[in-house]
Structure formats: C-alpha cells, structure tokens
Amino acid sequence: MSFSIQLTAKEKTLAENYAMQHALSLEEAFKRALFDKIEDEQDLTVAKEAYEEYVENPKTYSHEEMKEILGL
After folding, report:
1. Is 59 helix (H, G, I), strand (E, B) or coil?
2. Model-level pTM greater than 0.70?
3. For the chain, which terminal residue's Cβ has fewer other Cβ atoms within 10 angstroms, N or C?
C-alpha cells in the first residue's frame, strides 16, 4: 500500500533531516513514526485499563504470591 501526504517546506526539511540523522529513508522514517505512535497509544490504553482495575480492587500481591498464582 502506498499513500501521499502534503508537507510544508519546513515540515519536509525536518522530516528529511530526521531520516538522514537516523540513516533511514524518508518512507521508513514515516512508517516507524506511525507504528511507534500506534504502539504508544495501545500501551496507554492497556495501562489505563490496568489502573482502573486496580482502583476498583487495590489488592496487591507479593513476589511469592505471584509465583504461586502463576504456578512458578
């Protein structure tokens, strides 16, 4: 799949400089940035859900209890 985006001259220069500094093609730099952003948002969602679960049930477990729960 391919797509195009329009950048200002300043944005293009910034993106090209970033890609060059990291020895990436411009395409790879944009691809990594997109998927890093998606992964960060997914991680944040999981963290928020875990925190909400903790707030509802603030039970904590010791290291030994967790080992027993996990059968380790």
Report:
1. coil
2. yes
3. N
Residue 43: the pLDDT is 98
CA distance 70 to 53: 19
Instruction: Judge whether 19 and 28 are in contact, CB under 8 Å.
Output: yes
Tokens of 21: 């500094």
pLDDT at position 42 over 90: yes
Closest CA to 3 of 25, 24, 30: 30
Residue written as tokens 């730099």?
29
Q: What is the C-alpha to C-alpha distance for residues 44 and 38, in angstroms, rounded to an integer?
A: 10
Alpha-carbon span 41 to 26, nearest angstrom: 23
Q: How far apart are CA 61 and CA 72, in angstroms?
A: 14
